UniProtKB/TrEMBL annotation:
Lineage top rank: taxon: Eukaryota
Record family assignment: Belongs to the arrestin family.
Pfam families per record: Arrestin_C, Arrestin_N
GO BP of this protein: nervous system development; protein transport
GO-annotated cellular components: cytoplasm; plasma membrane
Name of this protein: Arrestin C-terminal-like domain-containing protein
Taxonomic classification: Eukaryota, Metazoa, Chordata, Craniata, Vertebrata
Organism: Nothobranchius korthausae
PANTHER family on file: ARRESTIN DOMAIN CONTAINING 3-LIKE-RELATED (PTHR11188:SF135), ARRESTIN DOMAIN CONTAINING PROTEIN (PTHR11188)
Sequence ranges assigned to domain Arrestin C-terminal-like in this UniProt record: 169-294
Amino acid sequence: MSTVKSFTISYNALNEEDTFSEGDVIVGRVTLELSKETKAQKLFVKAKGDANTHWTKKRGDHTHTYSAHRRYFKLKQLLIPESSEDTVLPEGIHVFNFSFNIPRESMPSSFKGSDGKIVYMLEAKLSRSWRMDSTAQKEIIFISKYFPNLYSLMSPQVGSTDKKMGVFSKGQVHMDVSVNKTAFAPGESIEIVTEINNSSSRDMTPKFCLEQRAEFHAQGDTRTASREVGKVVDVPIKPQTQQKVKCVLTIPREQVTSIQNCEIIKVEYQLKVYLDISFAFDPEVLFPVVIIPPGLVSGSQIGAMGPYPYGAFGGPSYSDFPPPSGPVGPYPAYPQSVSYGFPGVQNPSAPPPAYPGNPQVYAGPLDVSTPHWGYNNP
């Protein structure tokens, strides 16, 4: 019979969604149940955040492996004193409390995709002489609230496209499109208004599609995965007619937020508004969409929270990274924001900004390039 009857790790939830963000404090406990007295060399708990990508490609007789790793933080707390002699733990149930400060630096949200993942984990380990280590793990869901220049993402977007019909039909088509804003939370609705002038001889159907695109980077190679998040199909528009079409497309409540602050994994969204025309290239307008956490109202929310005193919570820190020389303050200044790069899409007040580079703290990601996918198909 094993001496260790059970070994678990748990934490106190901070909200109904059971998520954590920059600057939050994780308070939890490690529970160890022993069937008899035992001697322990070490007992500790760690909190860590990591991004990993991995895939293989076969070329002829050779298989090439691509992988990359980024660590955002790793914190450690001893649960029994560290000494040259073993600690005797009596039979029964032992509960060890712990707490960790999540760093306030910009870090990407939790994500799991086809060729990579971003995972935040609590891990406890018990070491005994002449025994295999006992390990307990508990994943935490991290939602980044770092969305700089969020106010500019609340302005409307507009775009338009023209198409001259080809061999199988006559005339031309013009479409003007407006979207109520760029940033949306899961459960929110995208409001779209289109004005369509069908001066052609063909029927055409307005369609509205929200797409997710994930990019995975490793060793100079890139893998992409795209999928449809939601779609609305309207009624066909007859030839030689003008029509205004309004559409409401709701973002699923469980949808992953956009990720722009990870060097090796990027998650972006685009709204495609197009006219489905049989036997012809479909005219379309693409709009960037940024999915943000529910309740996020200010792009500077994190920076405005004020510095957290280092080591203000819990016991001694055993981080793999050195502590800051002074209090952890607001983020450093960032470079000038630039446009998303969607031709034909305009913002009446300001262009939607790209996310700037991430500060190189805790071995974090480097600068993130401007999204490059998005265009109008004439």
